[in-house]
Write a structure and sequence with these properties.
Chain B: This is Maltose/maltodextrin transport system permease protein. Chain B: It is a multi-pass membrane protein. Chain B: It is found in: Cell membrane. Chain B: It comes from Catellatospora citrea. The complex is a heterotrimer of chains A (282), B (546) and C (416). Chain A is built from 13 helices and no strands. With 282 residues, chain A is mainly α. In chain A, helix 3 runs parallel beside helix 6. Chain A starts with a helix and ends with a helix. The C terminus of chain A is likely disordered. Chain B has 3 domains: 94 residues, no CATH class; 101 residues, no CATH class; 242 residues, Orthogonal Bundle (MetI-like fold), CATH 1.10.3720.10. Chain B contains 19 helices and 15 strands. Chain C has 416 residues and is of the alpha+beta class. In chain C, 44% of the residues lie in helices and 15% in strands. Chain C contains 18 helices and 14 strands. In chain C, strand 5 and strand 6 form a beta hairpin. Chain C is globular and about 65 Å long. The N terminus of chain C is likely disordered. Classes of the chains: A mainly alpha (282), B alpha+beta (546), C alpha+beta (416). Chains in contact: A-B, A-C, B-C.
Chain lengths: 282, 546, 416
C-alpha cells in the first residue's frame, strides 16, 4: 500500500488537485450559462436557476451562431494543417541539415514573435487594402485572406517544438533510408513524418487553439455577420450589449470549447502513441 | 526499419555534429554503380519529372492569377517583384541544389510578409508623428480643413436637386422650395429655366433640352457629382445627396503663397512642418494635421519625459517578475502533472488530460473577464473561499492574482508540450538511474529534467517573451491598477506594454503611433537581449548533451 | 500562453500580394477605379445595430437602384473605421456614438452634413447639440441615451426627491434585510465616470470649462477646482468608507443583475438595461437621478448615435443622400425605433411612439438636464485619470490629492 502510494498514489493526488484548479472557473461559466436570468451570476458556483434558455437563445437568436461555429472550425482546421506542414518542413531542415545562417535563422524565428504589435492593425490595412483591390479572393472579409495572414505565424515557436522532437529521432534512421535510395523528399514524408506523430498532434492542437481563439485580426478582417468567427462574433455580443448578454456569452464560451476538446479527443491517441513509440526508439 | 548504428548512443545523441552535412542525396545516388543504379535512376526520374511538372504548374497558375490585375492597374514595380520572386521559387524547386531552402522558403515567405513587414513598418513609424490627427498627407489635411469649413450661405434657399445632363455635361436642376422657381446650374453658373415639369416633392420630371438622369445612373457617377459645383456670387452650389443642394462657401482656404490657411473673418494659420499642424499667432492649431518626420524625437521623449522615465524602473522590475514567474509557475505545474500522468499505472489518463486542457480550450478573453469577476471584493468566489478582501485593489494581491490567473491559462500549454517532450526521454535512462540507487527525485533532476529542458528551452524563452508583453491579461483583469492615489499615470500591475498603451494614448482613443512604435523598439531591445543571451547559453548546453 | 496568437498578431503583410500593394500605393494614378462611384453604398456599424439597419439600408437601395451593404465591426469600431478610411478601404457611411466626432474630424475621416433648417428643427435640441462640433453638424442623429434612476416599485413606491432620501431609503431596506445594497451604480474596480456622472455633477463637479461658444474647452480642465474637489468629497462620503452606496465591487458585469436579483432597490442605468429589468418580475419605474438636498441638479451624460458620411468613401453623394435625406425622414425614424427601441432623436418620431413605450419617454425626461458628452478629442484623456481619482476617493482616499493627480495626468495627455 505504501509502495502504491509512493509510486501511483501521489500521481492521483496531484492530478485531482490540478484538475480542481483547472475546473473551477469552468464551473463558474457553466453556472452563468445555465442561469436563466442571462447574467453572469457573480454569486458563486451554484446558479440561481437551471435552464437551457441561454443555449436556446444563442442558437435561435439574431446571431448566426452555427455559421460562426462552422467558420471557426474550418478556418482553424485549414490553418492548423497548412501551418503544420510549413513549420514541420522548416523544422526538418533545421534539425537535419547544416547550412549557413542556420543559427541566425533559428534565433530570428524566436525573436520576431516577440516584437510588440502596436501597429499590427495599421499594417493589415496598408497591405490588404491593395490586396482587396487586386485579388478580392484574398482580401478583406474573405476567409482565404485571413488564412494566409495566419500563416505568417506558422514559422514560430512551433517550429522549435518540432525541431526539438526531430532531434531525438536518431539520425541513423534517415541515413539508412538514404542508403536505400530514398530522396530527401521521400525520407521526409515517408519516414520522418510518421515517426513524429506525437509532436505533430501536439502542434496541430496548439495551432488550432491559437487560431480558433484569435480575435484581434479576425475582427478587422471579417465584417459580414455571416463571415465571422466565434471569437469575433462573441466579442461583439459581449461588448456591445454590455452585460445584458452574459448568460448567452457564457453558453457560447462553453460551446467554443467543443471543437477544441473534440480535436483533442481525436488526436490524443497519437499523443499517447508516442509513449510506446518512444520506448521502441530507445 | 533497420539502423546501422544502434545502442544507447543513438538515442542519447540525436543531434548531428556541427560539421554535419547536407548531402544532395539524389545526385549522389545517381553516381552509384551497378544494376541498382539503373533501377534507382528510373524511379527517381519519374518522381523527378512529375515533381518538376507540378512545380511549373503551380508557378504558372500563380502567375496567371497574380499578373492580370497588376497589368490592369499598371503596377509595374509590383509586377517586377512578383516576377523575380516567382522566378526564384521556380529555380529553387527545379534545381537539385539548395535543399534546405526548399524546406524553409514557404514559411519564410509568410514570415517575411506578415511578421517582418509590420516590424519594418513599426520601425519606420517610430521616426514620424503618425497618429490620430496626423495620419495623412498635408494635402489631405488641407482638403479636410476646407471641406469642414463649408457652411450654407446665409439666406440662400435650400434647393431641391435633380441631376440632369445636357450635351454630355452634368447639370444641376435646382428648385427653390418656396417659390418653385427652377434654375439650371452648370459649371458656368446659374440660369433660370422655364417650362420644366416639377413634381409635388420638388423633383424636376422633365425639362426641354435636358435629360434627367435616373437615380441609379446618377449613383454610378458619384465621384463626378461630388466634385461638381455651380459657382454663385456668394459661393457655390453643391449637392447634398442626390435630391438636395445648398449654396455654400468655405470659410477657410489654403494659400500656397504664404503656405497658410486663411479665413475671410481674419484667421490665419501658418503651416508648421515640425509639428505637422497649421498654427495661428497664439499657438493654437487647427484640428487636422498631417504626418511629418520627427527624427529621433520619439526616442528622446521616451528617455527624457519624466512621466515615462520616472516610472520606468519600477515598471520594468515588476515586468520581469511577472514574466519570469509566469514561465516558472506554468512550467512547474505543467511538469508536475505531465510527470504524474506519465505512467502506465495511472488509470483514466485520457479523461484527466481533457480536463487539464480545458483552460486552454476556452476563449482567453472571456475567461480573463470571468477571473476578474471571481476576484470581486464582495461577490467574488475568491472572497467567499478566502475571506473578503479587495483582491485586485491592493498591489500585492493584485500581482499575485495575475500570476495565478496566468498560471491557470498557461499551464495546459506547458503540460501539452512537456507531455510530448517526455516521450522522447528513453525510459531506460530513468530506470537505469533508479537501479543505480538514485531516488526518484534525483533521477528526475539528473536525467529527465535536463533532457526535457534541452528540448524545451526555446519554448521557455518564447514563453518569457510572450509574457513580458502579455497585454491581454493586464488590460482585461486590472487595466494596470490599482493606482496610488497620487499617481494616475502608472498602476501597480502595469507592464511596459500596458503602460505604453496608455501613455501613447490608445486608451483615450487618440493614439500616437509614432511614440508607441519608438517604445516598442525599446521593449523589443530588452526582450531580445535577454532572450538572445538565454538562447546562446542553452545552445551551449545542448552541445554538451549531444 | 497563447504563443500562436502572438505570432498571428505579429502577422500583417503579404509577400506575393503585399508586393503588389507597394506597387499599387506607389502609383496612385494607376488605380482610377477607386475614385469612380460604383453605385454601391457600404455602411459600417456594430453587431447590435447591423440587423436593425439592414432592412432600411436595403429599402434605400431598392428605392435608388443601388446595392447597399451593411457590414458589422465587432470591436474597436472607431479606430478600425479611421484606419481603414485612411488606407482607402473604409465604408461610405459609419454609424456610431457622437463622442467620436472630434477624433474623426481631426483625422479628416468624416464630412459635415448639411441639414436644412427644417430638418434641424425636427430633432431634439440636445441631439443636434451633440453632433455639432466647431459649429458644424457632422452626423444625422437617430437615437439618444442617458442613464436614469430605475427603482423597484415593490420596495420603493415613490421616487426619492433627493440623493439623501435615496440613501436613507436604501439603508432602511438594507437594515430590514430586504436588500443587500443601498444602490447599484456600475462603478467597478476600475471606476466608471459615465455612470457616476449624475452624482458628481449634482454635487457641483465638472470636467471642462466652456469656450465662449459654449463648447467644452480642453485648455480649462476643471477637475481640481474647489467645486470639483467638493464633489469628490461627496462621492467619498457615498463611498466604501462612508455610506457604502458606491462600491468598487459593483460594476458593469453585475450592476444590472444585482438589481434584477433584488439585491438592491435602486439602479442607475440606461435603456439597455430594460430587457433584463422587464424579465425580473417585479414592478419598476424610471425617474431622473435626483440632486442633493443642498441643491444642484444631476446632469447625466447624453450619448447620441448618429450616421456619418465618410470623407474618403467611394460613393459620397449617395452617402449624403442616405444620411441627410433618408434617415432624417420621420417614417424611417419610426421604423428604426420599432426595430430598436431607443429614444428617438427625431422629435416627431419620439412623439409618435410615446404611447407604445412609456419607458423610452421616461428616459428622455430623465435626460432633460443632461449634457451631451463632449465630443472633443481631449475627452479621451479624461476617462482614465478621472476614473482613478474616483476609485481613490470611493475607497476613502483624500479628494484633493486624487484630483491633483488626475489633473496632472489629464493635462500631460492633452498637451502630449
Amino acid at each position: 500500500m505504501i509502495k502504491w502510494l509512493r509510486d501511483v498514489g501521489w500521481r492521483y493526488a496531484v492530478v485531482l488537485v490540478v484538475c480542481a484548479f483547472a475546473l473551477f472557473p469552468v464551473v463558474f461559466v457553466v453556472s452563468a450559462a445555465i442561469n436563466p436570468l442571462g447574467t453572469l451570476g457573480s454569486t458563486g458556483l451554484v446558479p440561481e436557476g437551471a435552464s437551457l434558455s441561454n443555449f436556446h437563445d444563442l442558437l435561435t437568436g439574431d446571431h448566426p451562431f452555427a455559421k460562426w461555429f462552422l467558420n471557426s472550425v474550418i478556418i482553424a482546421l485549414i490553418s492548423a494543417f497548412a501551418g503544420l506542414l510549413i513549420s514541420v518542413a522548416a523544422a526538418y531542415a533545421f534539425s537535419r541539415m547544416r547550412f549557413r545562417g542556420r543559427r541566425v535563422g533559428l534565433l530570428s524565428i524566436l525573436l520576431i514573435q516577440m516584437f510588440p504589435q502596436f501597429l499590427a492593425i495599421v499594417a493589415i490595412f496598408i497591405v490588404f487594402t491593395e490586396v482587396t483591390e487586386l485579388y478580392p479572393t484574398f482580401g478583406f472579409n474573405e476567409p482565404w485572406g485571413l488564412l494566409v495572414l495566419y500563416l505568417g505565424g506558422a514559422l514560430g515557436v512551433n517550429t522549435y517544438l518540432m525541431k526539438g522532437y526531430l532531434d531525438t529521432v536518431p539520425k541513423e534512421i534517415d541515413e539508412s533510408a538514404t542508403m536505400d535510395g530514398a530522396s530527401h523528399v521521400q525520407t521526409f514524408f515517408r519516414i520522418i513524418l510518421p515517426l513524429v506523430g506525437p509532436v505533430l498532434a501536439v502542434t496541430a492542437m496548439l495551432s488550432f487553439i491559437g487560431t480558433i481563439n484569435e480575435f484581434l485580426i479576425a475582427n478587422v478582417f471579417l465584417r459580414d455577420t455571416e463571415a465571422k468567427t466565434l471569437a469575433v462574433g462573441m466579442y461583439g455580443m459581449l461588448t456591445d450589449k454590455r452585460d445584458a448578454n452574459f448568460g448567452m456569452f457564457a453558453a457560447a464560451t462553453l460551446l467554443t470549447a467543443i471543437p477544441t476538446v473534440s480535436l483533442f479527443l481525436w488526436l490524443q491517441r497519437y499523443i499517447v502513441s508516442g509513449l510506446t513509440a518512444g520506448a521502441v526508439k530507445g | 526499419m533497420t539502423t546501422e548504428v544502434t545502442g544507447a548512443g543513438s538515442a542519447r545523441s540525436p543531434h548531428p555534429g556541427p560539421s554535419g552535412q547536407a548531402p544532395d542525396q539524389r545526385s549522389r545516388g545517381g553516381r552509384r554503380g551497378g544494376a541498382e543504379q539503373v533501377r534507382r535512376t528510373r524511379e527517381l526520374s519519374t518522381g523527378f519529372i512529375v515533381s518538376r511538372i507540378a512545380v511549373l504548374g503551380v508557378v504558372a497558375a500563380l502567375l496567371i492569377y497574380a499578373l492580370p490585375p497588376l497589368i490592369q492597374t499598371e503596377a509595374w514595380t509590383a509586377l517586377g517583384v512578383v516576377g523575380v520572386v516567382t522566378a526564384l521559387v521556380a529555380y529553387l524547386y527545379l534545381t537539385p541544389r539548395h535543399i534546405p531552402a526548399k524546406y524553409l522558403v514557404p514559411g519564410t515567405i509568410f514570415l517575411f510578409a506578415f511578421a517582418i513587414v509590420p516590424i519594418v513598418l513599426t520601425f519606420v513609424t517610430a521616426f514620424t508623428n503618425f497618429g490620430d490627427g496626423h495620419r495623412g498627407t498635408k494635402e489631405e489635411a488641407v482638403r479636410a480643413i476646407e471641406t469642414s469649413s463649408v457652411t450654407q450661405v446665409p439666406g440662400s434657399p435650400e434647393y431641391y436637386l435633380t441631376i440632369a445632363e445636357r450635351d454630355g455635361e452634368l447639370v444641376f436642376l435646382l428648385v427653390d422650395p418656396d417659390t418653385k422657381a427652377v434654375q439650371a446650374g452648370t459649371a458656368d453658373g446659374l440660369s433660370p429655366l422655364t417650362g420644366a415639369e416639377v413634381s409635388l416633392t420638388g423633383k424636376v420630371l422633365s425639362a426641354a433640352g435636358y435629360t434627367v438622369i435616373p437615380t441609379a445612373q446618377a449613383a454610378e457617377r458619384d465621384a463626378e457629382i461630388a466634385a461638381f459645383s455651380v459657382p454663385t456670387p456668394g459661393g457655390a452650389v453643391k449637392a447634398t445627396g442626390l435630391s438636395r443642394a445648398f449654396e455654400g462657401k468655405a470659410d477657410k482656404s489654403y494659400d500656397a503663397a504664404c503656405d497658410c490657411v486663411t479665413s475671410p473673418s481674419g484667421g490665419r494659420w501658418v503651416a508648421d512642418e515640425v509639428e505637422g499642424y497649421f498654427v495661428d499667432a497664439e499657438g493654437k492649431h487647427l484640428d487636422q494635421g498631417w504626418k511629418v518626420d520627427v527624427g529621433f524625437a520619439n526616442f528622446t521623449k521616451a528617455l527624457t519625459d519624466p512621466t515615462i522615465s520616472g516610472h520606468f524602473l519600477n515598471v520594468l522590475i515588476w515586468n520581469f517578475v511577472f514574466a519570469l514567474s509566469a514561465v516558472a509557475t506554468t512550467f512547474a505545474l505543467g511538469m508536475i502533472v505531465a510527470l504524474a500522468l506519465h505512467s502506465p499505472r495511472v488509470r483514466g489518463t485520457k479523461f484527466y488530460r481533457i480536463i487539464l486542457i480545458l483552460p486552454y480550450a476556452m476563449p482567453g478573453f472571456a475567461m480573463l473577464l470571468i477571473w476578474r469577476d471571481m476576484f470581486n471584493t464582495d461577490f467574488g468566489l475568491i472572497s467567499k473561499l478566502f475571506g473578503v478582501h479587495d483582491w485586485l485593489g491592493t498591489p500585492t494581491t493584485a500581482r499575485l492574482g495575475l500570476i495565478v490567473i496566468n498560471l491557470w491559462m498557461g499551464f495546459p500549454y506547458m503540460f501539452l508540450v512537456i507531455t510530448g517532450a517526455l516521450q522522447a526521454v528513453p525510459r531506460e535512462l530513468t530506470d537505469a538511474a533508479r537501479i543505480d540507487g538514485a531516488s526518484a527525485w534525483a533521477g528526475f533532476r539528473r536525467v529527465t529534467l535536463p533532457l526535457v529542458l534541452v528540448a524545451l528551452t526555446p519554448l521557455l524563452i518564447s514563453s518569457f517573451g510572450f509574457n513580458f508583453n502579455n497585454f491581454n491579461n493586464i488590460k482585461l483583469v486590472t487595466n494596470g491598477g490599482p493606482y496610488a492615489i497620487d499617481n494616475s499615470t502608472v498602476g501597480a500591475t502595469d507592464l511596459l506594454i500596458s503602460y505604453t498603451y496608455r501613455v501613447a494614448g490608445f486608451d483615450s482613443g487618440v493614439a500616437d503611433f509614432g511614440f508607441a512604435a519608438a517604445i516598442s523598439v525599446f521593449i523589443f531591445a530588452i526582450v531580445a537581449t535577454v532572450s538572445t543571451v538565454a538562447f546562446w547559453r542553452s545552445r551551449a548546453q545542448e552541445e554538451v548533451y549531444s | 500562453m497563447r504563443i500562436r496568437t502572438a505570432g498571428v498578431i505579429a502577422a500583417a503583410g503579404l509577400l506575393m500580394l503585399g508586393v503588389a500593394a507597394c506597387g499599387g500605393s506607389g502609383e496612385p494614378a494607376a488605380t482610377p477605379s477607386k475614385d469612380k462611384g460604383n453605385g454601391k453604398l457600404v455602411l459600417w456599424t456594430d453587431p447590435t445595430r447591423a440587423p436593425v439597419l439592414k432592412p432600411f439600408a436595403e429599402a434605400f437601395g431598392k428605392e435608388n437602384g443601388v446595392t447597399v451593404e451593411v457590414k458589422e465591426i465587432s470591436e474597436n469600431q472607431q479606430q478600425t473605421f479611421i484606419t481603414a478610411s485612411q488606407q482607402g478601404s473604409g465604408p461610405d457611411i459609419m454609424v456610431g456614438a457622437h463622442d467620436w466626432i472630434g477624433n474623426m474630424v481631426q483625422n479628416g475621416a468624416i464630412d459635415p452634413v448639411q441639414l436644412t433648417a427644417e430638418q434641424k428643427a425636427a430633432f431634439h435640441p440636445n441631439a443636434i447639440k451633440a453632433v455639432t462640433f466647431n459649429g458644424q453638424i457632422y452626423g444625422a442623429p437617430y437615437a439618444m441615451e442617458n442613464v436614469a434612476l430605475i427603482r423597484n416599485t415593490d420596495l420603493v413606491p415613490t421616487a426619492p426627491a433627493t440623493i439623501e432620501d435615496l440613501i436613507k431609503t436604501g439603508k432602511d431596506l438594507k437594515a430590514a434585510k430586504k436588500v443587500q445594497e443601498i444602490l447599484c451604480v456600475p462603478f467597478g474596480a476600475a471606476g466608471d465616470v459615465y455612470h457616476t456622472y449624475p452624482l458628481f455633477s449634482a454635487a457641483g463637479g465638472s470636467l471642462f470649462g466652456t469656450t465662449a461658444s459654449g463648447d467644452p474647452d480642453p485648455s480649462k480642465v476643471t477637475v481640481n477646482t474647489p467645486e470639483s474637489i467638493a464633489a469628490l468629497e461627496k462621492m467619498k462620503a457615498l463611498g466604501e468608507k462612508g455610506e457604502g452606496a458606491i462600491k468598487t465591487s459593483i460594476g458593469n458585469e453585475n450592476g444590472i443583475p444585482s438589481f434584477v436579483q433584488k439585491k438592491c432597490a435602486f439602479l442607475i442605468s440606461g435603456p439597455w438595461s430594460m430587457n433584463d429589468v422587464k424579465k425580473a418580475g417585479f414592478g419598476y419605474d424610471i425617474s431622473a437621478v435626483p440632486g442633493f438636498a443642498a441643491g444642484g441638479q444631476a446632469k447625466p451624460f447624453l450619448g447620441v448615435q448618429a450616421f456619418y458620411v465618410a470623407s474618403k468613401g467611394k460613393s459620397k453623394v449617395l452617402a449624403q443622400e442616405f444620411v441627410a435625406n433618408y434617415v432624417t425622414n420621420k417614417d424611417v425614424a419610426m421604423a428604426l425605433y420599432k426595430a430598436d427601441p431607443r429614444p428617438a432623436a427625431l422629435t416627431a418620431a419620439a412623439d409618435a411612439v410615446k404611447s407604445l413605450d412609456p419607458n423610452a419617454e421616461k428616459f428622455v425626461q430623465a435626460g432633460a438636464n443632461g449634457i451631451p458628452m463632449p465630443a472633443i478629442p481631449a475627452m479621451g484623456a479624461i476617462w482614465g485619470p478621472m476614473a482613478n481619482a474616483e476609485v481613490a476617493v470611493v475607497k476613502g482616499g483624500d479628494a484633493k490629492t486624487a484630483a491633483e493627480a488626475a489633473t496632472k495626468a489629464i493635462t500631460a495627455e492633452i498637451n502630449k
